[in-house]
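$ ./design --mode recover --in tokens.txt
reading tokens...
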């Protein structure tokens, strides 16, 4: 089924500077960025994958998959998921659409530490024209070029399996 990109972006706009009380706030436990992006993607996907250990789901702060809150495991789930839920691939910046995901590396080019949601793209998809929403340094419509990062990877969400 189709991934509802508009719903993902609307969710990001609503909750970028606040916390949805239905989800735990992980700011004091390493950051809330991937939790927030998972919420946004869920708003567009409308289905979770409850496979133990390797799925993508949130029931409570204690009952969630590693991929719901971990940068690395989120990437692994989204780019390898062959079951229920959203799936995609590592894309070129030119393939990004609103509702897709950006991950940033700060200390070395292979250790990604921050997950953000694409909420807008200018005519030319460059770091100057990619607009993002995030938690852990809350932002909405912040330019990718304003982040001080070493490497970026882009996840294009193709669709959702029910």
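writing sequence...
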């Amino acid at each position: 089924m189709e991934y509802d990109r508009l719903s993902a972006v609307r969710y990001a706009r609503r909750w970028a500077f606040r916390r949805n009380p239905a989800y735990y706030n992980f700011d004091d436990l390493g950051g809330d960025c991937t939790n927030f992006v998972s919420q946004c993607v869920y708003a567009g996907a409308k289905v979770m994958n409850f496979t133990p250990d390797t799925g993508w789901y949130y029931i409570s702060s204690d009952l969630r998959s590693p991929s719901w809150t971990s940068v690395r495991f989120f990437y692994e789930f989204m780019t390898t998921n062959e079951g229920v839920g959203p799936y995609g691939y590592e894309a070129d910046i030119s393939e990004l659409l609103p509702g897709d995901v950006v991950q940033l590396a700060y200390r070395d080019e292979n250790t990604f530490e921050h997950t953000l949601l694409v909420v807008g793209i200018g005519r030319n998809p460059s770091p100057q024209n990619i607009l993002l929403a995030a938690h852990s340094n809350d932002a909405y419509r912040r330019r990718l070029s304003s982040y001080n990062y070493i490497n970026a990877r882009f996840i294009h969400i193709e669709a959702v399996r029910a």
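exit 0
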